[in-house]
């Protein structure tokens, strides 16, 4: 199937500085793609290139298989910039009506479109309020609604959750899920990984203008972890458990998993984190059986998923 | 199906332009200032009559017309760049520029929508001032032709000075800088020619020569002075008393203070008498060319990328500029007028 977005060796320079270096990106239709990277990694440049606001220094962009030429992509994408502005002196409905006019939506459809979008972003009750009176979260949703005014198949959201309080973030997440159900392809960027982990189907990690890794979230996690972690909690005598487990580190056994490291969980009592070479469930079951056989009273035994933040930090450490 | 749609920028600007107190305060201030000017001029005329001067009703009408026109022009000169110098830069400052550029809205639409919306407010001010101007009719003395010329000059100046603000707004990212540079350009157009004209005679050879009219071609004040000065009727060997103007060369300012400063480059004293050079003709042509040129450059400056790549709109601008250039070339005898040889110094 033709991907919604594809970039081929996409580069962008600002003078001598390379903001984006040979980026090859592929975003499948209907996915929510999270673009992760530290500040200045090239996320905004990529999104601005996809929105047609910047011209590539080299390489090409394809939207739904069509090569993007300047001025051709506006109807295919909806773009929400990282620092968005709102016209303070407009009412909420006028704001959307203005952008609907910019996209050439005929008058007979405009009013309906505005009402539908206000309903989608839960701002119907604020229809006649001035934009300046809305909260930051409401303005963010209004800005998202403006990007949807022409019903584009692709949405580009630059740092959509920045500056939002926890409640507004949850609302935004719900809204993104709704958009996915509407079969929209959403590309969003963030430097806060926890924002993206729960909603994205695919992620790409970018640093210094280069894509470090890209793919479905679980696959990326698996690739980055390169093994597995187990979390074990004992009822008492964590020291004994640690001795037993340390005895297994580095030993070659066919019936038990290969342990790389054992450490105490820094924030929890009677809890150990074990790093394994591979995530094999059979071997993990045998390990549990072995530990019980050693007389340890185990109250919790489960795979510990390293969060994206830790993975990202590990991946980009020392660069 | 084809459907006509108003420029979205105009719709938005018109919706928001008259919101709040500010536009009404400006309008009120503008009209109050004009009314006070009219009252002041009338009092001045009365004072002249009290001190023994022969002041006719028509002279009062002419002085009022001239004074009000100048005040209106000054207000336009001050307001037009202020209203347009924020048009594009404010979109950048408000962070809405990217959102606009991400829509199919063309930079040309953005530009002319902004310009027209800003100017429409100024046109409203001009229109609203007509009742104040109508007081001139009570006194008479103003030809309808002079009235039409004045209105045309005011409108063309409004557009040209609006284009200066628009150009600066497209060039600079910050409104404060755009406004400052716009006013610097205004000072350059108005103040510098007047300054050069003031010292011209001291450096000319032989000394005491009048500056050439060309120096004032882009100065709207000089142009308005030319429009509102009635050339005395001339007959063989002297002035025709029957065609003697109410505002004669020795009363060329209609008794209004400071206006004599503008006579330089406009009023010349030839062997056949006083000659008023209609430099407003060159001003109209010059401002039309300047407006098209500034809008052309601005249309490139607002582009987010590929700013200087040629586009189809360039062909339109080029054709317009060539057309105006051709008009200027073929009508040069109409607007390029050489003053008669000097026989005496300028009045005032």
Automatic annotation (TrEMBL), chain A:
Coiled coil: none annotated. Keywords: ATP-binding, Nucleotide-binding, Transport. The keyword ATP-binding applies. It comes from the Bacteria. Pfam families: ABC_tran. One of its GO terms (molecular function) is ATP binding. Residues 5-233 form the ABC transporter domain. PANTHER family: ABC TRANSPORTER, ABC TRANSPORTER, ATP-BINDING PROTEIN. Belongs to the ABC transporter superfamily. This is ABC transporter ATP-binding protein. It comes from Candidatus Chloroploca mongolica.
